[in-house]
Amino acid sequence: MCHEFLNDPRFYSFLLQIDQDIAEEVRQNCCIYCGSTLHSADYPRKPRGPRGVMTDNDKIRLSFCCALDGCRRRNTPPSIRFLGPKVYLGFIIILVTALEHGLSNKRRQYLIEQLDISPQTFYRWKKWWIETFSYSRCWQLIRGNFIPPLEVLQFPGAILGRLTGQDLMQRLCQFLQLLLPITSTSWSGSVKVVVNPQKM
Prior knowledge:
Number of domains: 1
Shape: globular
C-alpha cells in the first residue's frame, strides 16, 4: 500500500528529529520579542494518528519561554508534525484529504478505521484547504512556485501532485516544509532546516 510508512516508527522519529532541529535553530536566535535567552517550555499534545505507532515523544510540542522577567513570552517554533492546533498530525491531514477523491472504497474505509476519522472531519479539512489555506499568507508566498496555477478546489491534492519527491513520503515531507509558516502563531521568523527524507 502506498502509505505503509504510516505504520513505520522510523517515520515518526524522522519528523521528531526535524522538529528538534527547527527548535534548536529558534532557541539559538533568542526571543523574537526582546532578544533574551529562551528556556524550554514544551507542552503535551494529544495527536491522533495510527494506533500503537506514536511514542510519548511524538506527543510533545516543542516550545520555549523567554527568560526575561517582564517579557516571558512564548516562542513556539514552527513544526513539521503539528499543523497548528489541529488534532491530527499534519501529514495525515494532507494525505487523507489529498487522496480522498482517488481512493477506492476499500482504501477509504481502511484509513477511516485505522485513523478513526469521521465524515465530518473530512468535510472540515476539505473546507479548511479551500476557504482558509487558499487565502493564507503562507499560500500567497508560495503560490508563485506553481506554474501553471493550481486549482484551489483541488487542494491539497493539486499541490501534492506538483511536488517532485521520488515517492509519496518525500512529497509529503516537502509539503510539510512549505506549511511551516502556518504552524505557529508565536514565531514569525524563518528557519533554514532542510528536510531530507532519504536520511530516514
